[in-house]
Specification:
alpha/beta; Multidrug-efflux Transporter Regulator, Chain: A, Domain 2; Rossmann fold; five-stranded parallel beta sheet; three-stranded antiparallel beta sheet; 15 helices; binds cobalamin
Length: 325
């Protein structure tokens, strides 16, 4: 059972529903409920109707638990610690891990060197990318990953970072090597999440990919991470998938939705037919969610096949939450 030591400056008023707790911590709602049931990690207030409400302090506790588990500790070992103990473990773990700089991101835990805002992480990442300093960029990305919630990481660091580096590359200020370094690191950072998501087998499923001819993959990966963070069972197919394969995966997995990312090109004459083909082979009630910088160029075919065109990951999260209900 969690010790209930309270601190003065963090509100203890139960006011946030579980979806807000999930968004603020980057944990899935399923994971939060499982930690409560199995380990009593955080015990929220219950309304008369049985809804869970979390205080700011509960959310801080969940965030600390997320960081200690991300650093390799088992939830069962730490769930009973109070806030002070958790903070001490986090800072000792992260200090030790900050010394590990030459291991690949996927094989080590997160690194944090003090609390940063999304803007400060973004600036640090841009500087490291400009200098082609791979190990510093890895550290900065890992630090952002552990200190920020998943939506903030995706929308306020990774997305503008890719935009900025892509833009400097287009204007000739950076070389293709900068972009390759960045996209390789971002890719490896995003990949484990959708593949090892913590969603339960009966969570609603979503197939995520890019259609044939669309080879930019990072938008699809971001969608996969965002859906997974919201408790969806993600079936991630990778980029450049033929229509028949996509439709087959939806039917096999019983997915309720499909997420397609369209980044480049925005004038592929074969893509409209490819999109129609996906729709024709999908069960009627499967929702098609389409986004990415090139998606607006295919508006008319998207309307025709009753796909939802979404402009941001926030719109994705809203749509997923409506579909779930
Ligand atoms: C990384 C990258 C690459 C990598 C891709 C690696 C990989 N595995 O994906 C590599 C180096 C291979 C590459 C190659 C090329 N690239 Co490139 N690339 C980029 C870069 C930097 C990032 C792309 C990216 O993933 N962006 C992040 C995405 C996710 O951002 P976004 O589209 O705005 O999406 C956001 C939302 O819309 C939403 N979203 C995305 N998808 C979806 C889906 C759903 C369902 C929802 C709800 C939301 C959603 O999430 C995002 C986050 O907010 C961009 C620059 C940029 N500004 O984007 C150029 C960019 C896309 N590339 C470009 C070009 C020109 C190319 C090349 C033609 C270069 C060349 N001459 O070889 C080739 C084309 C390859 C091909 N065959 O198509 C241009 C495209 C210009 C245009 N006319 O649109 C860009 C814009 C660079 C530029 N500024 O000129 N590229």
């Amino acid at each position: 059972m969690a010790s209930q030591q309270r601190t003065e400056n963090v509100s203890q008023e139960p006011q946030h529903p579980i979806q807000v707790a999930a968004r603020r911590t980057g944990l899935t709602a399923d994971a939060i409920r499982a930690w409560e049931k199995r380990y009593g990690a955080v015990e929220p207030f219950r309304t008369p109707g049985g809804r869970r409400l979390y205080s700011d302090e509960d959310i801080e506790r969940l965030l600390l638990l997320r960081r200690v588990t991300a650093a390799g500790r088992r939830i069962g070992e730490v769930a009973g610690h109070d806030l002070e103990q958790l903070r001490a473990i986090v800072s000792a773990d992260e200090e030790a891990m900050a010394r590990v700089s030459d291991m690949p991101l996927s094989s080590r835990g997160p690194i944090a060197r003090g609390r940063g805002t999304a803007a400060s992480h973004l600036t640090a990442c841009i500087e490291a990318a400009k200098q082609l300093d791979a190990s510093r960029l890895e550290r900065e990305l890992a630090s952002a990953q552990v200190q920020l919630t998943t939506p903030v990481l995706l929308e306020q660091v990774l997305s503008p970072l890719l935009e900025e580096i892509g833009d400097r590359w287009r204007r000739g200020f950076l070389k293709i090597a900068h972009e390759h370094l960045l996209s390789a690191l971002v890719r490896s950072m995003l990949t484990p999440d959708p593949l090892t998501g913590t969603a339960s087998p009966d969570a609603p499923g979503i197939v995520i990919t890019t259609p044939a001819g669309q080879v930019h993959e990072l938008g699809a990966l971001m969608v996969a991470v965002a859906a997974s963070a919201d408790g969806w069972r993600v079936i991630y197919l990778g980029p450049n998938m033929p229509a028949d394969e996509i439709a087959h995966s939806v039917r096999e997995s019983g997915a309720r939705a499909i997420g397609l990312s369209l980044i480049y090109p925005s004038d592929d004459p074969r893509l409209p037919e490819e999109l129609r083909r996906i729709r024709r082979h999908l069960p009627e009630d499967v929702a098609m969610l389409v986004g990415g910088r090139a998606s607006h160029a295919y508006n008319s075919v998207l309307d025709e096949i009753r796909a939802y065109r979404l402009d941001s990951l926030q719109e994705l999260r809203d749509s997923l939450s409506r579909l779930r209900d």
